[in-house]
Amino acid sequence: MSGHLSGTAALWVLVLGSLLGLELIGKVPPTLHTPLMSGANAISGITLLAALALIGEAPTPALKLIGAVALGFALFNVVGGFLVTDRMLAMFRRREAN
Amino acid sequence: MVELSIELGSVLLLAFGLKGLAKIRTARSANGLAALALVLAVVGLLLQQGLGGWPWMLLGLGIGGGLGAVLALRVAMTSMPETVALFNGCGGMSSLLVAIGAVQLPTPLNLVGQVSVLVSVLVGAITFSGSLVAMGKLQEWLGTPGWTLRPQRHAVNIVLALACLACCALVLKGMAVALVPLTVLSLLLGVGLTLPVGGADMPVVISLLNSYSGVAAAAAGFVVGSELLIVAGAMVGAAGLILTQVMCTAMNRSLTSVLFGGALGAASSEAGDAGGREEYTNVTSCSPEECALTLEAAERVIFVPGYGLAVAQAQHSLKELARLLEQHGIEVRYAIHPVAGRMPGHMNVLLAEADVPYDQLVEMDDINPDFPRTDVVIVLGANDVVNPRAKSDSASPLYGMPVLEVDQARSVFVVKRSLGSGYAGIRNDLFELPQTSMVFGDAKQVLQSLLQELRSLGVGKVTAGAGSTR
To answer: What is the pTM of this model?
Structure first.
């Protein structure tokens, strides 16, 4: 939609982003696997940006509605994902305080 | 310029967030950073495109965000795997809808855009239906239907996949209508791929689907031309793959065998259930009283918690029992297998919820050398992760999986509801060893009666010296 991105530039972004992801999650203590999975899952709800862009560009109400539903699904993922991760991690922190 | 710096700041925060999530000390603040990154990203985008269509944005925000918050704050910690699966599926659905919306915009898409729409629809739909099936199986709303275990299912899935590709080709030729059958077929494919996977392998599937939802997000990023979305999606996709690999290693399964030969676990599970009780010949069972007497005289005790403990909601009783034993001068620790619970790390979360001190949870490699010096091991609702067959029987599907070597301890009590087979459906030789006694019953009830028995023995009231060894 914004369309300023060339195909090759986008592919570079994709490849470098993947490498970054591999590098960042090298070693994880097993304790954190579940929270990490849940946190990463919340981040993947970033498609909400695409949903917002769709609502912004959509010429018809029907299309805006599709955007709104997409936004709802994405936010369900984002808000729920971050909160649930926080709930899990809060327990670990209380543990260490003792 | 402002928008660009906000976007770059958001990417940096996401990267630091993801990195911080991998360390216990920083994990919670890192989660906040990642959330902040998403807020920043939204602000940056809205600065760029304006607030046109804001009622629609509010609608999505209110309903989706509200429901997500309610579910996240209410759900029990034991249901974490299925909750993650549900959230994940919704992320996939979002990418799918965005792609379908994008093709209807008046501005035509270039080839990269069109291919990205196809990837977004295909992967988004598989993520959505696959995650819902995974959730249903974990909630035990769905079983593993027998027909899905026949070899023909591969043929069905291959036909579905080919039909999906054919639809893709049609869309690229200009027939946008073919997106409809593509969506339906991809949804079916997600079901077809996930339904035959056995219960024990489900965490791997959720982790893989988590990775897919990242891929779907990245594809949606190509569709709308957002670098930020591509980077974030790619990071999650890669991170999900690593986690999947870690889980496979811990369970001694290869990813291909989970996905394509995946019926193994489920198939033998059915055989195990049918074979049932007759299979075990030399099992000693004992009452909570006898178990309490042995406990009272022990010096070192190790608990091995499994998912059965969580299902019975018995973590709090366990913690209470551990405290009582400690007051009696007994050393108490918990042995945590990497895949205890239904996701790696799940058991740590559950025990942390019950206030079990963090340093009493010992990882498998650190505690295995200690079992020969241990007086009593109590296995609570764990099965496959303590099966000695994983070391001895090269024909067993468990062979090679690292297990907790509880058979080395002086006496072992296995608290279990029945002699049914474990999650992976494999017979457990531990139950027939001479030092093993089965305590049949619900984990919570057994723990409660143990507490009662120990109290009536005067444990915890008198701070007498530690009980004598046998």
So the answer is: 0.79
